[in-house]
Amino acid sequence: MSTITVPPVMPSVQQDCQALHHAMKGFGCNEKHVIEIIGHRTTLQRRELVAAYRGMYGEDLPHRLEKELRGNLEKAVLLWMMEPAERDAIILRDAMKGVGTKDKALIEIICTRAPSQIHAIRHAYQAKYQRSLDRDIESDTSGYYKKLLLAYASGLRYEGPEVDMNLAHSEAKELYKAGEARLGTDESTFIRIFSTRSATQLNATFQAYKHLYKRDIDKAIKREASGDFEDALRTIAKSVSHPDKYFAKALYKSMKGIGTDDATLIRVIVTRAEFDMHYIKAAFASKYKKSLESMVASDTSGHYKHFLLTLIGSH
Fold first, then answer.
1. pLDDT digit string (tens) for 101-125?
2. CATH architecture of 13-69
């Protein structure tokens, strides 16, 4: 469920364009006014806003925002103004370009998106960068981690709600034999099952595993895998079972302790605000005994704080 609120009486898209143009006209930018408009518009409304602004002023609205804003506010706003698939494609490219790989972002995007979303991301990635997502994953990762990401990024999983309980019990036993029941791990079995089954089927398999062996699949993975391969498997397991808890934990970890992991904070809030942020907020409050709003408010400042709080429904 979305946490984006829209005005009870919606201005016309032309009025929004005029207000934005005025906020960015002349010296400086009225960032508060910009946030009050774009932070309270849905994906469709923002799409219409970009098209109308170009028609009225002959300028690309995101490009104008990029010139007017700075720092973390700029990063968050520019991601917010993008189409969801393009946004995820940009996050993936940023995670893999240059020296080193931002595996946390890479795993989060690939391993938590539905097959239909993955297909859209692949097309957006190719269109924007004239590069193959598969090739970039292959060149930036290795081993079983690479094999799992490539299989998951194929988008070939079924997306329907049906569950085959016989298959769930059978594959729970396969996972046990491939892991805890043997010395060493048969990683290929984990990759095959995790990357070919729907979210609902996987969830049924994980429940069957817990029923049969009295252990959560997450704990079994921790015993049998390591490194980025372990992180990717655990992300898949958590996101198909309790995505709200998975993203609540990601947000909490981005803010706990000294300093803030702004890249993760921005990525999760911007990509989940119109999807399931309502549930994430509830999971956050239940797990950490404080509201997401209060933690964001204490860890950020200025118009950057105002924008994030707007997206999570606090302003």
1. 999 999 999 999 999 999 999 999 9
2. Orthogonal Bundle (1.10)
